[in-house]
Write a structure and sequence with these properties.
Helices cover 56% and strands 0% of the residues. With 237 residues, the protein is mainly alpha-helical. α5 crosses α7, α6 packs across α7 and α10 packs across α11. 41% of the residues are buried. The N terminus is likely disordered.
């Protein structure tokens, strides 16, 4: 996640995923509804793969997940969260011990600093509670727009669309919300996805991109959206 606290810098950093060439045409609402009907039928209650025990540990896990796998983060945070599941406990643990706990994760030195700094700010400015607005979340060290969206969605049940590389790819390939950068895709998803699917849309898209609609070798033969997909990346078998 972003290392600075200024909103403009975070927004700029959020645009690092880009798509070259002309933007594909967006699908009609009925087609988008069909896509999400299929996702829901296949997986009615999708879950995020980062492990957490409360809103604070979820926030920390998502901050740690930048440029790291969920499995790698979970392996490091299980023992960490067993002894530090609140900002107060994390702060008492100290940066050195946090750094040692997460040293198997990429960028662990900066991430440890951010975990301690955001814990301090949560205590000083938010009564030790994770805030429930994007603006407040983005004011925390190490927290950018994507992290804020994940926390708002999972911890507080808000309809948000966190766009990572998987969501970006699927939204463009299936023409749900074509866009040349992550902000365009996020805003497109907000407009395109019917509210009844909004709560779980992020999970359906990320899981589909992670396990089926992969970047280099999409497994189109087992894709539940195969007959609807007209992406140039589609693999015909």
């Amino acid at each position: 996640m972003d290392q600075q606290n200024s909103a403009p810098r975070k927004l700029a950093a959020a645009k690092h995923i880009t798509l070259a060439g002309p933007r594909p045409r967006a699908r009609k609402p009925a087609e988008i509804r069909e896509i999400f009907e299929r996702f829901r039928a296949a997986n009615p209650e999708p879950k995020g793969e980062l492990e957490s025990v409360n809103a604070f540990t979820l926030l920390v896990a998502v901050v740690l997940s930048a440029q790291a796998t969920d499995a790698g983060v979970n392996k490091a945070t299980r023992p960490l969260f067993a002894i530090a599941d609140t900002p107060q406990k994390m702060l008492a643990l100290g940066e050195d011990k946090v750094r040692d706990a997460i040293k198997t994760i990429g960028l662990y030195r900066n991430k440890a600093k951010n975990v301690i700094a955001l814990s301090e700010k949560l205590i000083a400015e938010f009564g030790g509670q994770v805030p429930t607005t994007r603006e407040a979340l983005e004011s925390l060290p190490g927290v950018g727009r994507k992290t804020a969206n994940v926390v708002l969605n999972i911890a507080f049940g808000q309809i948000t669309h966190a766009v990572d590389t998987h969501v970006f790819r699927v939204a463009n390939r299936l023409r749900i919300a074509p866009g040349k950068n992550v902000l365009q895709v996020e805003l497109g998803l907000e407009k395109a996805i019917p509210p009844e699917f909004g709560r779980h849309a992020h999970h359906w898209l990320i899981l589909h991109g992670r396990y089926t609609c992969k970047a280099l070798r999409p497994e189109c033969g087992r894709c539940i959206q195969n007959d609807l997909c007209d992406s140039p990346d589609k693999r015909v078998t």
